[in-house]
Amino acid sequence: MALSESEHCASAAVQRVTVNGYGADGSGVARLEDGKVVFIRSAARGDVLEIKLTRERPRSAEAEIVRILEPSPYRIEPDCPVYPKCGGCDFRHISYEEELELKLRRVNDAMERIGGSSARSSEILRTGRTGGYRNKAVFHSDGDSLGFYEARMHKVVPVSRCLLLKDDLNAALETLSPKSGVTLRSGRNGLGYPLEEVLDGLVFGVSGFFQVNTGAALLLFRKAREYASLSKDETLVDLYCGVGSLTLFVGRDAGRALGIEVDAGAVEAARVNARRNNISHVEFLCADAARWDAGALRPDCIIVDPPRKGLSLGAISKALELSPSRIVYISCDPATLARDVSRLKGYAVKDICAVDMFPRTANVECCCLLKKV
After folding, report:
1. What's the pTM value of the predicted model, to 2 decimals?
2. Is 5's pLDDT higher than 80?
């Protein structure tokens, strides 16, 4: 009788591999003797390992580490007692310098292989803090304790303290009932409501979507403002404005700015943020980024900060219809950024910068400047 995939993997022999890189999810990448690519969680570039396959596909496989034969020079001792079982972090087993290098390589490889662009990010902006930066936490409950989900599973790993969280969130965790999950957010005024954050003198209410790393968000916003390079006789359009933080931050340099957002609650929060900062030349419209009627409006610059899946074909068509001289594209996924860059016909990447928004995880943020050619 033929073995199932799980039975086949469970019966697979231990194999020896050398890790030569990283996948998009942070897993180490190696090749099996038959040439198949294998992804190994918590592996480091340069590791020589004994592994056991846990899942096998026609062209790739996943494996777990059985034994480290020769540790990578980039490998360090994890500083968290629940790593790597907890799925919140990906890189507590490698040096931060190696993490930054692999993230930069991931961005540049995507631009070349997927985007067909020769543009390269020469640096990755970071705050210097690899912990205590998260201002939001989603705790899950198993009925007896609170924690985070295990990697690739919906099984709760109990935690008493998370190294990524701000101190006030960890303090609050100690007081919470373990019987039900909860989401906590912190602002400059702690856990009190209404929550606020300050970026370059602008005050924002923390509601709806807001960057979870305020320090890194400031670096990202400043880069977006630099790329937009607006003057008082120019117009800005932000196609995914959310609560308006980026629209207001960059749009304060423009003569007029318009934020487009499909979520009515976020639009109202954006309008409150504009009033809070006494900015009157920025407007917000509740509409779909791909379908709103721009009329005769022809902005000088467009900002897009879409979800991880990137721009829809409709949003790309709308951006091309508006025909700005420059587009500032902020992305949390280098692959979808590179794909969309190749679809924005008539525009070329002039500059790109990576930002380490989420240290010790595989996520990397990008800010990209495109100009009409």
Report:
1. 0.92
2. no
**Is residue 276 helix, strand or coil?**
helix
Terminal CA-to-CA distance of the chain, rounded, Å?
62
pLDDT band at 7 (very low <50, low <70, confident <90, very high): very low
CA distance 116 to 51: 35
Helices and strands (DSSP H and E) totals, the chain: 8, 20
| Alpha helices in the chain, H assignment, sequence order | 5-11, 96-113, 167-173, 214-228, 245-251, 264-276, 313-322, 334-343
pLDDT for 242: 92
The CA distance from 103 to 144, in Å, is 37
Look at the domain 97-130+192-372 and name its fold: Rossmann fold (3.40.50)
Q: What is the CATH code of the structural domain delimited by 5-70?
A: 2.40.50.140
Tokens of 88: 């919140």
d(CA 172, CA 155): 22
Q: Over 90: is that where the pLDDT of 56 sits? A: yes
Could you give the percent of the chain with pLDDT greater than 70? 97
**Active-site residue set:** 332
